[in-house]
Amino acid sequence: MDRKGLTYEYIDIVKQDQDLYYEDYIKAKEKVERSNARYRGKPVPFLYQPMFFTWEDVENFNRIGKILISIGDKVINKYIESPKYRKMFRYPKLLEELILIDPGYDVYIPISRFDIFYNGGDEFKFIEVNTDGSSGMNEDNIFSNIILDSRSMEYMKKKYRIGYFELIDSWVEESLKIYDGFVHRVDMPNIGIVDFSETGITAEFEAFKQAYRRRGYNAEIIDPRELKYMNGYLYYGNMRIDLIYRRIVTVEFIEKSYEIPDLIEAYRDGAVCMIGSLRSQIMHNKIIFKILHHEDTLKLLTKEEISFIQDHIPYTEEFSGDSNRFRKVMENKDAYIIKPMDSFASQGVYAGRDFSQKEWERIVADCWDKDYIFQEFIEPSKGPFIQFNNRGNLSVEDFNINIGAYMYNGNFAGIYTRISKDSIIFGREGYYSIPNLLVEGVR
Question: Can you give the pTM of this predicted structure?
Fold first, then answer.
């Protein structure tokens, strides 16, 4: 029993009665459209097929995540201790100051999602690491429950013990554990899920708010501009805020810092516990892939960690400076991908092979010396997926697969998978979100 075998078994089941499963697919799609799995008001695109994972995969993701967290902790410690090392990150003055502030608890990376091309075992390559603002938990859990309740899964559930990766309540549990280590903790903290209203994923925030409330806590979704710092406490209206689940991505936090002086002052004073702290940005910024390969970083690491970086972190360099870099990227478009150093939802990401030479030359000229990086292009993992057209006809087509593995408080928590025909499959457009199921064994 492995992921690929389970996938082909599922596809064969659906092929045996296309009319039955097309009708069930329409019902599942309607459930998605009625759910709160939405992005900017629209239902998240969905296919009638899950990704299957086994305990072997779970153990592998946990191992990968723990090595990554260990590396991240050492890099963050070095950043805090060494002004010289800090210079490699080239952060603005305010961000550097906020990173150096002790957040009042000892977990540098409370939540993360590492996105990888994964073929099992040691066959994987990193795409990027997300810390602050990691998302997708709500839609995965909704899709997983819908597919588990589908006709197509009835035979599979008779044969195998199958579950899903619960990602909402489990984060609530881990965030409260982290808060228990906060130097100024209070019993039954009031909780704010904080992001800018024009950016935040409201449906997902609502799921987390309700999960905190089920545990008996006061919780609200808050735009940081609504927070006021008075008499040593941070307030949202008349409600004191003790714990913030930060969903603001750091780049936006800094860009709009002039709009949120009360939150920043309260954080400086240690008056509020903010999970995650600004220290998580060190592993989130895409320049980290270059820094991980730097000799000053490798000196901090074990032999296993060094091999991990060399084998699984793609070659990355700043897209500026030496003009030879510009020519190399321009003349070898199929070998490279260009990304902003700090963005989210795949904004401004370009894979050379998706463009003509003329288009690529325009893109690289526009991006040169403007806080971009370039990376070696990694061939995506691929797999077969069922599609129905509007007439109910079934086809099986190969898609590129991006697997995002969540780490909550240092431990593997679950999966978020997106697939696409395009080379870039980690944005918010042009992809399908795929349910993720854990096959725990044969019945």
Answer: 0.92
365 CB neighbour count, 10 Å cutoff: 10
Query: What DSSP assignment string belongs to 184-252?
Result: T--SS--EEEE--TTTS-HHHHHHHHHHHHHTT--EEEE-GGGEEEETTEEEETTEE--EEEE-S-HHH
Residue at 308: amino acid letter: F
Distance between CA 433 and CA 168 in Å, rounded? 17
Q: Are 168 and 220 in contact (CB under 8 A)?
A: no
Both tokens assigned to 137: 């938990």
The answer to whether the CB of 13 falls within 8 A of the CB of 152 is yes
Cα–Cα distance for residue pair 437/424, rounded to 1 Å? 24
**Per-residue pLDDT tens digits for 88-105:** 999 999 999 999 999 999
Determine the Cα–Cα distance for residues 207 and 168; give it in Å rounded to an integer: 7
Give the number of other CB atoms < 10 A from CB of residue 5.
11
pLDDT digits (tens, 9 = 90+) for 283-308: 998 889 999 999 999 999 999 999 99
Cα–Cα distance, 137 to 157 (Å, whole number): 23
Neighbours of 411 (CB within 10 A): 13
**Residue appearing with tokens 């990227």:** 329
Q: Kindly report the number of other CB atoms within 10 A of residue 419's CB atom.
A: 26
- pLDDT band (50, 70, 90) for residue 199: confident
CA nearest neighbour of 114 among 349, 312, 300, 246: 312
pLDDT digits (tens, 9 = 90+) for 332-374: 989 999 988 765 545 678 889 889 999 999 999 999 988 888 9
Q: How do beta strands 432-434 and 124-130 pair?
A: unpaired
What domains sit in the chain, N to C, each tagged with a CATH number? 3-286+381-442 (3.40.50.1760), 318-377 (3.30.1490)
Query: DSSP class of residue 42?
Result: E
